[in-house]
Amino acid sequence: MAEATHRPKPRSGTVWRSRGADRRSTRALRVRTSAVLVTATLLAVLLVPPLVQLDQQAVDLAAKLRPPSWAHPFGTDDVGRDLLLRCVYGLRVSLLVGAAAALTATVIGTAVGACAGALGGWADRIVMRVVDTVSSVPHLLLGIFIVALFRPGVWPVIVSVALTHWLSTARIVRAEVLSLRARPYIDAAVSGGASRWRVAVRHLLPAVLPQAGLAAVLMVPHAMWHESALSFLGLGLPTHTASLGTLIQGAQGSLLAGQWWPTLFPGLFIIVPTLAVAGLAGAWRERLNPRRRSELML
């Protein structure tokens, strides 16, 4: 009985290793799932339009608002257009707009943040006060104001999203530059007579590029949501352009009438790819963060 009641307790190190293995397996599954979804999204965007010889604008009033079927897996919209094809075209437009806006915002944020961190002093204070002031205004409200200055189109949406999303990148790059300026090799380069421009190009810029790239990838889902919101409000892309936001905006009447599919599938085309991109970007961020990576190894 004594032997039965006094069982040896597992060592704490074994428990922690088991938990660490579970976390790593869960993380690996999440990354693989995100990679599969992102790959499927890119293949659909790149291959479906040239391979499927159908006009996504073709109207068939006799087939309007048909529910999902073998002929139309996502159903049809209020004028009989195939929703699957429309969603693929809409995803392509939203992805291109989001990627262009994210790249533009990353370039602006990297330049502003690098200059603020490298120059320091009054220049840094002025730049950060501007960043804080613009950040105090909600992104969507500021985006609506910018888009309202132009006619609906692709470029106004890209400009609107870029001008409202560069702030976080500027903060990240500035913090990284300030951290790098305290490194011994930067002091050695300055003591050796290297100019500020040479130090920035040779040492600071290569070091901040991974963080800037991560910020750009993380910004793509935000930019897609922003474009969809503007288009849904009727302020983004023209209504005849098949973006995911315009598809949802045009399906409001159908949803109120009980036809759910014109709203559901474009919404899923927004949610699933953006979550997949965010999952891959999160894995990238963990690889760039040594402390977080060491925690995952426990």
TrEMBL record:
Q: How does it sit in the membrane?
A: Multi-pass membrane protein
Keyword set, alphabetical order:
Cell membrane, Membrane, Transmembrane, Transmembrane helix, Transport
Annotated localization: Cell membrane
Q: Where does this protein chiefly localize?
A: membrane
Q: Which PROSITE patterns match?
A: ABC_TM1 (PS50928)
Reply yes or no: does the keyword Nucleotide-binding apply: no
Q: Does the record bear Transmembrane helix in its keywords?
A: yes
Tell me where the transmembrane regions lie. 93-119, 126-148, 204-225, 264-284
ABC transmembrane type-1 domain: which residues? 91-281
Q: Which domain of life is it from?
A: Bacteria
SUPFAM superfamilies xrefs: MetI-like
Q: Which GO terms describe its biological process?
A: transmembrane transport
Q: Which terms in the GO cellular component ontology are assigned? A: plasma membrane
| PANTHER family the UniProt entry points to | ABC TRANSPORTER, OLIGOPEPTIDE TRANSPORT SYSTEM PERMEASE PROTEIN APPC
Similarity remark: Belongs to the binding-protein-dependent transport system permease family.
Q: What is this protein called?
A: ABC transporter permease
